[in-house]
Structure formats: C-alpha cells, structure tokens
Amino acid sequence: MTKIGIVLASHVPELARGVYQLLKQSASDVPITYAGGTDDDKIGSSFDKINDAITSNPADELFAFYDLGSAKMTLEMAIEMSDKRIKLFDAAFVEGAYTAASLAQGSSSKDAIEEQVAALKIK
C-alpha cells in the first residue's frame, strides 16, 4: 500500500506549525511536513520553504493543503518541479488536512481519503 504524506503551506509560520502539531496528535505515523511564511518568517509564502517541505517528506505520495491563494500558486509551482506524486486539495485548510491525516493514520485508501476531503472543498 502506498504511504500517504501531508504537506501544509500557510502564510503564517505559527499557523503552519500549529496545524502540524494538531495533525500529529491524531496521525503520529503519517509523514507530515510544513512551510509557513516567507524566507525571513514574515507573512507570505516561500517557494524554497514549500519545496523543502515537499522534498523532505518521505511519503510515496503527498496530499497538499494551503491556506490562501498565493500559497496555492507557490505550491503549484513546486509541484510542477517535483518528481513526487502530489495531489493539491482546494479544501478548508485545517479541516481538510486533519481529515486526510486522520484517515491516513487509520490506513484508509487513497480513494477513500480523497472522497472524504472532497466534501470539504472550498467553492
């Protein structure tokens, strides 16, 4: 079975770290990496931080979550440059990532996780 990992991208370093900590409470075996803020830890997004979060995550396949539009655009650029299989979700940041991580911890299939997270899509 393919191991699913989670990548988080937020504009705020503390938010990225906080969501990471929340997810690890119920998904301790799931590889989760995060990127928050700009290169100098201000509010914004950093290609290098997001790329490092993707690269350093040891999972076979990654599910990526973001908080705002420019984090999404930066994730999209990093995904295009990566050799990893990465699915970017347009879902509520905390709820989507938490749902995916919890289901991955419970060994749910990739399809089952995607179906549950789809219900949290931001329209």
From TrEMBL:
UniProt KW Zinc keyword: no
Q: Which reaction does it catalyse?
A: dihydroxyacetone + phosphoenolpyruvate = dihydroxyacetone phosphate + pyruvate
Q: Which residues form the PTS EIIA type-4 domain?
A: 3-123
Under the cellular component aspect of Gene Ontology, which terms does the record hold? Answer: membrane
- Which SUPFAM superfamilies does this UniProt record tie to the protein? PTS system fructose IIA component-like (SSF53062)
Q: Which Gene3D superfamilies match?
A: Phosphotransferase system, mannose-type IIA component
Q: Which GO terms describe its molecular function?
A: phosphoenolpyruvate-glycerone phosphotransferase activity
Q: Which UniProt keywords apply?
A: Kinase, Transferase
Question: Which is one Pfam family of this protein?
Answer: EIIA-man
The family database entries (InterPro entries) matched by this protein are listed as:
DhaM, DhaM_N, PTS_EIIA_man-typ, PTS_EIIA_man-typ_sf
**Which GO terms fall under biological process for this protein?**
glycerol catabolic process; phosphoenolpyruvate-dependent sugar phosphotransferase system
Give its E.C. classification number: 2.7.1.121
Q: Give the record's subunit note.
A: Homodimer. The dihydroxyacetone kinase complex is composed of a homodimer of DhaM, a homodimer of DhaK and the subunit DhaL.
- What biological function has been recorded for the protein in this entry? Component of the dihydroxyacetone kinase complex, which is responsible for the phosphoenolpyruvate (PEP)-dependent phosphorylation of dihydroxyacetone. DhaM serves as the phosphoryl donor. Is phosphorylated by phosphoenolpyruvate in an EI- and HPr-dependent reaction, and a phosphorelay system on histidine residues finally leads to phosphoryl transfer to DhaL and dihydroxyacetone.
- UniProt protein name: phosphoenolpyruvate--glycerone phosphotransferase
* Organism whose genome encodes this protein: Paraliobacillus ryukyuensis
